[in-house]
From TrEMBL:
The gene coding this protein: ackA
A single GO BP: acetyl-CoA biosynthetic process
Keyword Nucleotide-binding carried by entry: yes
GO molecular function: acetate kinase activity; ATP binding; magnesium ion binding
Family annotation (HAMAP family): Acetate_kinase (MF_00020)
Pathway: Metabolic intermediate biosynthesis; acetyl-CoA biosynthesis; acetyl-CoA from acetate: step 1/2
UniProt function note: Catalyzes the formation of acetyl phosphate from acetate and ATP. Can also catalyze the reverse reaction.
Compartment(s): Cytoplasm
Highest taxon, organism lineage: Bacteria
Amino-acid positions noted as binding ATP in the UniProt annotation, renumbered to this chain: K14, H208, L209, G210, N211, G212, D283, F284, R285, G331, V332, G333, E334, N335
InterPro entries per the UniProt record, alphabetical: Ac/propionate_kinase (IPR004372), Aliphatic_acid_kin_short-chain (IPR000890), Aliphatic_acid_kinase_CS (IPR023865), ATPase_NBD (IPR043129)
Protein name (record): Acetate kinase
Length: 398
């Protein structure tokens, strides 16, 4: 089955056309500057081809059409016509409590996505716009929504409830939702395969570490806790996001500097994290270079991030009553050997023993712990697009 995977942002749209039978990416690319002017980057991996086009994209509908034109082009396309696309899989950030799994898109699903907009006001509207644009251009093609939050719907109440008046949960659905669920689901399944054991028998801690980071406890294939919360702002310090902090800090700073809540949230989301601590960059590669050059604040930012992840690994091992494997994934987790080693070092008391030589790698599946380590430490590149495509193929195939 050929599945087109769509990840729509407010002014951008990522896409991949995948053959789910062979798990092959036929083409992929990015539409940028939607609503401004429009730029399409189109790649065909089998031909090692990369092309860029300036195309007017006043709305997402024109962006989708430009994607379809590129895919069916006689010069650089990979299919003869749109009819070869069997289904479209859409990444949707927030499904609230309504969706514990991916769902075929119909009127009821669209209505539920609209209801979830207050839970993800920056993301869900863009996702909905992408779906509607595809429906306008491909009205007869089945479509599936794959939710970032769905995997974490298995968390028990003690994990997701906040210690607020209970009516805020009952009436307003204020609770921990968690994100990056598609990534955590993918790498935990791959970890089980690499270990040659049924996932139902394993306790796995997955560390999705990048500009946005989250850590999850996965017991028997089900998420039982995760670091992101009601929004993706919670958890460990990230590129520009603060992660967990004392809520009283907001009142203190807002009063002192005359900020309203919008300004405060802009600080927390875009000026904090490792950028805020270091004053250098939100890019971990820049921080490492600065730290090597003697920048103490850059080193402090790295230390704070790594320490926060390490604490969660210990907490989740305690929550599950043990751990069989720790997985590192996403941009930093996959590519930064120093970060992996720093987080895993000091966990020998719980059975972790690293292999420095094995850990000196990046970007491919590998066991980076020592052969005699009781807890296996794995590097697994994530593939959220593959998960979206496979979910879509399964649901449409039914």
């Amino acid at each position: 089955m050929k599945v087109l995977v769509i990840n729509a942002g407010s002014s951008s749209l990522k896409y991949q056309l995948m053959d789910t039978d062979t798990r092959t990416v036929l083409a992929k690319g990015l539409c940028e500057r939607i609503g401004i002017d429009g730029r399409l980057t189109h790649k065909v991996p089998a031909k090692d081809l990369k092309l860029e086009f300036e195309i007017a994209m006043p709305t997402h509908a024109e962006a989708i059409q430009s994607v379809l034109d590129a895919l069916t082009s006689a010069e650089h396309g990979v299919i003869r016509s749109m009819s070869e696309i069997d289904a479209v899989g859409h990444r949707v950030v927030h499904g609230g409590e309504k969706f514990a799994a991916s769902a075929r898109i119909d009127a009821d699903v669209m209505a539920a996505l609209e209801e979830c907009i207050p839970l993800a006001p920056l993301h869900n509207p863009a996702n909905i716009t992408g779906i509607k644009a595809c429906q306008a251009v491909m009205p007869s093609t089945p479509m599936v929504a794959v939710f970032d939050t769905a995997f974490h719907q298995t968390m028990p109440a003690k994990s997701y409830i906040y210690a607020l008046p209970y009516e805020y949960y009952e009436k307003d659905k204020v609770r921990r939702y968690g994100f990056h669920g598609t990534s955590h689901r993918y790498v935990s399944a791959r970890a089980a395969a690499m270990l040659g054991k049924p996932i139902e028998e394993l306790k796995i801690i997955t560390c999705h570490l990048g500009n946005g980071s989250s850590v999850s406890a996965i017991d028997g294939g089900k998420s039982v806790d995760t670091s992101m919360g009601f929004t993706p702002l919670a958890g460990v310090p990230m590129g520009t996001r603060s992660g967990d902090l004392d809520a009283g800090i907001l009142e203190y700073l807002m009063n002192k500097y005359g900020m309203d809540i919008k300004e405060m949230l802009n600080v927390l989301n875009k000026k904090s994290g490792v950028l805020g601590i270091s004053g250098v960059s939100s890019d971990f590669r820049d921080l490492e270079e600065a730290a090597k050059a003697g920048n103490d604040r850059a080193q402090l930012a790295l230390d704070s991030f790594q320490y926060s992840v390490k604490k969660l690994v210990g907490a989740y091992a305690a929550a599950m009553g043990g751990v069989d494997a720790i997985v590192f994934t996403a941009g930093v987790g996959e590519n930064d050997a120093v970060t992996r080693m720093t987080i895993a070092s000091g966990l020998e008391f719980m059975g972790v023993k690293m292999d420095a030589e094995a850990n000196n790698t990046r970007g491919h599946e590998a066991v980076v712990s020592a052969a005699d380590s009781k807890v296996k430490v794995l590097l697994i590149p994530t593939d959220e697009e593959l998960m979206i495509a496979m979910d879509t193929a399964e649901i449409v195939g039914k």
